[in-house]
Design brief:
The complex is a heterodimer of chains A (273) and B (321). With 273 residues, chain A is an all-alpha fold. Chain A is 71% helix and 1% strand. Chain B is built from 11 helices and 14 strands. The chains are: A mainly alpha (273), B alpha/beta (321).
């Protein structure tokens, strides 16, 4: 992602393109930066800071540790793929949403919004690029985690000399990637709503847990309509039959609503000094 | 070129900017001068499109900032040198910026060398001094070879060598036809760098014009071995002369005084504008409580001086707010 050696949109004025600037030129003939480039920059931003690198390393490390722990601690007769998926999901489901939230908050918390929006004043493009970047990073990491789970399953079979039960591997893998991506998207939505890192991460972990703990007591079965964890569970096993309504409502409330409210604020907000 | 047209910004009921209007032309460095809290940063942020004006417009090259297709190729901005991610290296920060303007990564390396950060490129910005961040900011602003520069307090954190470097950089930029708008509360820095001044106080433009005209209003100081003869010659030429410590004070520009002295065969040992003190007086007169920003223009001591300056520099179109 180091950029091409050609420069798109050559200016028609006398700018030399070298040196500290001759100060002469014209905006005529310049074309907007392609969206793919904006997207590439946002992907790069999630990976090029120490915090981003530590978080991603943490995700993979937790997945590997979960797998090794499963090898050591479990007294298995059969190596079940789904159980290794659970073992690796600790890292992806818990940590990747933080990467999603950071993607939406760090520009404001680290004050880089100043550079970002002066270089790309079309905030809508930056926002869409950031969301897609967070989703892409989450999805790719989830795919790697699924790979670790598969290796874990085969490793257990080899270590303990037991047979493998893949179950429905494709459903399991797709469900896991979907859930991890949705979790990251929810992290991003809450980050977008609050635009402050610490507050977003706190709300992300506290609010759905709070609802899951208290909602059922107050609203009984109806609480399912707002229980995002139940919705994620259905998605994980691709069980949409009969649950589609509650799933969509829960995802709408926990993802679409904060994303919409936060998005409007993102587009209009003055960059603080 | 840069143009503010009746730019007004309110935070709630508080007015940060009131009907700010001025223009910066290609080939000039304009100093945006005012005390802290006068609204300089707010105005520059509105110009750069990161703060919304309540009313009025601010244009770069005839367009609103957000309508520029690739802003980094038209205008370079350093609004807050400290606003860099501390976890990124200087090189990474510039590469990201280059990428955002669709420029090659090699451009980042080039600018790192140019601003003297080549050796620090691999260090994280969190370890940079404020002066190094200013250089990084300038490098980022210059990446796209722009023809307009907007700098908020660019001298902040720079050592004397850095200030000199900044001054040279801006002069070369303007000499090549570029437009520079820089804010400062450091009078001496502004005086040595800018061609024009826009003075702001409590959100209103209280004076603007050519630096020489504003300074000229404070008169020039002239000295020579024959002060009596010199005084007669200057008075004879219709200039207002008064005694001053270390010579005579004349209400004229240096060239006029020099010509009169030359014609009269007078030897000069010193000839200078009112200098820093003149601008400093002007600045404090305009921005301190001695003359409220809402008072009628041209009534305070500085206002009088400004009117005098305007009359003398009739070619200028400076406006008293």
């Amino acid at each position: 992602m180091t950029g091409p050696d050609t420069v798109a949109g050559q200016r028609t004025g006398a700018g030399t393109g070298v040196g500290l600037g001759t100060g002469v030129g014209t905006a005529a003939g310049l074309r907007p930066v392609p969206f793919l480039r904006v997207f590439g920059v946002e992907v790069r931003k999630t990976l090029d800071t120490r915090s981003g690198q530590l978080l991603l390393a943490g995700v993979l490390l937790l997945s590997v540790l979960g797998t090794v722990w499963a090898w050591i601690a479990r007294d298995e007769q059969v190596a079940v793929f789904d159980r290794y998926q659970d073992a690796t999901s600790l890292g992806t489901v818990v940590v990747l949403p933080v990467i999603g939230a950071l993607a939406m908050t760090s520009e404001w918390t680290q004050r880089t919004a100043l550079s970002t929006f002066t270089l790309q004043p079309r905030r809508d493009r930056v926002l869409v690029a950031k969301l897609l970047a967070a989703l892409a990073v989450a999805a790719v990491t989830a795919v790697i985690a699924v790979g670790i789970a598969a290796v874990g399953t085969l490793g257990a079979a080899a270590l303990h000399g037991i047979p493998v039960d893949w179950g429905r591997p494709l459903t399991s893998a797709v469900g896991m990637v979907l859930v991890v991506t949705l979790n990251a998207l929810m992290g991003a939505a809450i980050g977008l709503l609050l635009q402050q890192t610490a507050a977003a991460i706190t709300l992300y972990y506290a609010a759905p847990v709070g609802w899951a703990a208290t909602g059922h007591r107050v609203f009984g079965e109806a609480a399912e309509w707002l229980d995002v964890f139940t919705a994620f569970n259905h998605v994980a096993y691709l069980e949409f039959g009969g649950h589609l309504g509650p799933i969509l409502v829960a995802l709408g409330v926990w993802i679409v609503v904060p994303m919409t409210v936060g998005g409007v604020r993102w587009l209009r907000r003055d960059v603080p000094s | 070129m840069i143009r503010f047209e009746n730019t007004t910004k309110r935070f709630g009921h508080q007015a940060a900017l009131t009907e700010v209007s001025f223009t910066c032309d290609p080939g000039t460095v304009t100093g945006f001068l005012g005390p802290n809290g006068a609204g300089k940063s707010t105005a520059l942020r509105i110009l750069a499109g990161i703060t919304r004006a309540t009313s009025g417009t601010a244009l770069v090259d005839g367009r609103r900032y957000r309508d520029l297709p690739v802003p980094g190729r038209v205008v370079g901005t350093v609004l807050d040198a400290a606003a860099q991610h501390p976890g990124r290296t200087g090189r990474e920060a510039l590469r990201l910026a280059a990428s955002m303007s669709d420029l090659p990564a090699s451009r980042a390396e080039e600018l790192l060398e140019r601003v003297g950060l080549g050796n620090a490129a691999r260090r994280r910005v969190g370890t940079y001094s404020l002066g190094m961040r200013q250089r990084l900011g300038i490098a980022q602003a210059m990446l796209g070879d722009p023809y307009v520069l907007i700098l908020d307090e660019p001298a902040n954190g720079l050592d004397p060598e850095g200030i000199r470097w900044m001054r040279e950089t801006l002069r070369v930029f303007a000499a090549g036809g570029g437009t520079v708008l820089l804010s400062s509360h450091l009078l001496s820095e502004v005086e040595a760098t800018v061609d024009r001044l826009v003075v702001i106080s409590a959100g209103r433009v209280v004076a603007q014009g050519e630096l020489t005209a504003l300074l000229g209003g404070a008169g020039v100081v002239v000295n020579g071995p024959d002060l009596v003869g010199l005084r007669i010659a200057l008075s004879g030429a219709g200039l207002a002369v008064s005694a001053a410590s270390g010579g005579l004070r004349v209400e004229a520009d240096t060239e006029t005084v020099g010509r009169v002295a030359s014609a009269a065969g007078q030897v000069l040992t010193e000839l200078r504008t009112g200098g820093g003190t003149g601008l400093e007086d002007l600045f404090f007169d305009l921005t301190s409580g001695r003359r409220g920003p809402t008072g009628p223009p041209g009534t305070g001591p500085a206002g009088t001086r400004l009117v005098a300056a305007r009359d003398k520099a009739a070619r200028d179109k400076e406006v008293l707010a």
